[in-house]
Design a protein that fits this description.
heterodimer, A: mainly beta, seven-stranded mixed sheet, four-stranded antiparallel sheet, 11 strands, B: mainly beta, five-stranded antiparallel sheet, 13 strands
């Protein structure tokens, strides 16, 4: 199993550009989520999904969209990038809503 | 709103010493998670504590959970340089239906162990 994979590893965007961060898992997990990590802030939940076709907002959802058309994939879209979205983004999955979360390797995003 | 507080946030210690990291959280929860993060890397799961009184040990690390006090501890015994990392505790967020929607993390404890 590859576990949770994310692409790209690094990305630089200009303010106003849009892009999609990819996340995939091969563990047949129902729950998937996106976090951002900023220095001194720990990780904060952006959006999550409890299964294909079901998504909802987390703690810091503004400026981001998600969709979940398959169990395996959970892409995160930045609609119009802003410097405040400079961060490291982690995708995670868990089998149910009660178990251990597994994290992907992260995407380091810089918005200039 | 669920809050998770870790202390200390920074810790520099010498090899061979013992120390404890504390994690307090503000709402009732019977599950708590500890993660390790090395610089530039992802989060590695260390412990999953699933009930009051749970204690788990792996090598020089031992974690415990007291749900009544809303407190978890991560104890380091006879520290070695390889344990230098940032340690996070996390608690399940809101419950709805089958489970939580994600984790709320503490800000992390940056641990430096000097030879």
């Amino acid at each position: 199993n590859a576990g949770v994979t994310q692409t790209p590893k690094f990305q630089v965007l200009k303010t106003g550009q849009s892009m999609t961060l990819q996340c995939a898992q091969d563990m047949n997990h129902e729950y998937m989520s996106w976090y951002r990590q900023d220095p001194g802030m720990g990780l904060r939940l952006i959006h999550y999904s409890v299964g294909a076709g079901i998504t909802d907002q987390g703690e810091v959802p503004n400026g981001y969209n998600v969709s979940r058309s398959t169990t395996e994939d959970f892409p995160l879209r930045l609609l119009s990038a802003a410097p405040s979205q400079t961060s490291v983004y982690f995708c995670a999955s868990r089998r149910t809503g009660k178990g251990e979360q597994y994290f992907g390797p992260g995407t380091r995003l810089t918005v200039t | 709103e669920l809050k998770v507080e870790q202390n200390p946030l920074f810790l520099s210690m010498q090899e061979g010493k013992n120390y404890t990291i504390y994690c307090n959280y503000s709402t009732t929860s019977d599950r708590l998670y500890w993660y390790r993060q090395d610089p530039g890397k992802s989060l590695e799961s260390l412990f999953v504590l699933l009930s009051n009184g749970a204690v788990k040990q792996e090598g020089r690390l031992m974690a415990s959970l007291d749900t009544k006090a809303r407190l978890s501890t991560l104890h380091i015994t006879a520290a070695v340089h390889d344990l230098s990392a940032t340690y996070f505790c996390a608690v399940d967020r809101r419950y709805s239906g089958g489970g939580a929607d994600g984790l709320t993390f503490g800000k992390g404890t940056h641990l430096i162990i000097q030879p």
